[in-house]
Amino acid sequence: MIDFRLDDEYDALRKTVQDFAQNEVAPVIGGFYEREEFPYALVAKMGEMGLFGLPFAEEFGGMGGDYFALCLALEELARVDSSVAITLEAGVSLGAMPIYRFGTEEQKRRWLPALCSGEALGAFGLTEPGGGSDAGATRTTAKLVDGEWVINGSKSFITNSGTDITRLVTVTAVTGQKPDGRKEISAIILPSGTDGFAVAPKYSKVGWNASDTHELSFSDCRVPEENLLGERGRGYAQFLSILDEGRVAIAALSVGLAQGCVDECLRYVGEREAFGHKIGAYQAIQFKIADMEMRTHTARLAYYAAASKMLRGEPFKKEAAIAKLTASNAAMDNSREATQIFGGYGFMNEFPVGRFYRDAKILEIGEGTSEVQRMLIARELGLR
Ligand SMILES: Cc1cc2nc3c(=O)[nH]c(=O)nc-3n(C[C@H](O)[C@H](O)[C@H](O)COP(=O)(O)OP(=O)(O)OC[C@H]3O[C@@H](n4cnc5c(N)ncnc54)[C@H](O)[C@@H]3O)c2cc1C
């Protein structure tokens, strides 16, 4: 059956997040962005609303919802601001989800309640200074010595890794060699504050300026053997499956940004005049907005389709890559056109479209670049 309507629970969630984004995020986020400051109070409010626990079972402090609910929340947040949206996306889908999917009962009970409440944040450390697309090239090592993992190496561009409320980073590390000579890569939970775990000052970024991103380094960091997450040697495969889901979330976030561009332009072209008419009366402007709407709509359908396969438990790798590629292109194109429609004001930080423009580019890079999405689609089509 084909039915694209949202059921009442999803719709109610979407409206609640929309109200929060418009009434509480929109008025203040520009200031946080310009000051490059992490919005702790907004994150705490999102925690109280249950957003960080959306797809997790109630027994671990979650809301008992699903991944699509998270996507809807991300779309509505990113319609207003992407820094807040990526903080939620990374906190849930990269910080907490690996523990939820692969953790032992004890690990889940220990870490998830605080992550689900938004009181604490978790991060996901895969990318290294030497490369992100080729995640198997991991150089960070973890050696088992007297019942402890001793971790050495570094990670770059890690979201939510250095806030005052960051409690852990799950890192991939080489823990040995497989019989076929390839690296054995495992995932290990590294609590914040562990001796030898250094968090560099935050990066100066082009966009997502109210979100938290750091380079991390590990020098003889010791954690108990039981901090291994999932099976030894399965770290790479586990992270790839987390990234498949994450791509649907990033697609939803991208659709939100693309929609935000349409929202802002519809408002602006009804007010701004040139040559004696509202600029919205000119067909050149109308066509730009019609194209923006078309891209947003198509991208939304793409992520709904990927999410629906994911929720049914069917393979969704190809659909997730298509959704991420389509939606990040839509976000980039819409933000460029929206900035153009705003003219000089589009280049001023006082209007959100300039922020959307700066925030859109990373969507074509993070959680797999556009080239990587094409590689995945081609592979799923049997091309090697
Ligand atoms: C703000 C921000 C937040 C991030 N948050 C996180 C995080 O929380 N956790 C985390 O682990 N990572 C995070 N990342 C890292 C991000 O996922 C990587 O930057 C991304 O995957 C690309 O890796 P790279 O930067 O090493 O680029 P590279 O892998 O060096 O790629 C460089 C270029 O080469 C292209 N390329 C590479 N291989 C091929 C190929 N085989 N064929 C064709 N083209 C190719 C790429 O598409 C790209 O255009 C974040 C990055 C940013 C900027």
UniProtKB/TrEMBL annotation:
Cited PROSITE patterns: ACYL_COA_DH_1, ACYL_COA_DH_2
Presence of keyword Flavoprotein: yes
Domain (Acyl-CoA dehydrogenase/oxidase C-terminal) ranges: 233-381
GO molecular function: acyl-CoA dehydrogenase activity; flavin adenine dinucleotide binding
Domain Acyl-CoA dehydrogenase/oxidase N-terminal: 8-119
Keywords: FAD, Flavoprotein, Oxidoreductase
Pfam families: Acyl-CoA_dh_1 (PF00441), Acyl-CoA_dh_M (PF02770), Acyl-CoA_dh_N (PF02771)
Cofactor(s) required, per the database record: FAD
Keyword Oxidoreductase: yes
Domain named Acyl-CoA oxidase/dehydrogenase middle: residues: 123-221
Gene3D superfamilies: Acyl-CoA dehydrogenase/oxidase, N-terminal domain, Butyryl-CoA Dehydrogenase, subunit A, domain 2, Butyryl-CoA Dehydrogenase, subunit A, domain 3
Family statement: Belongs to the acyl-CoA dehydrogenase family.
Entry protein name: Acyl-CoA dehydrogenase
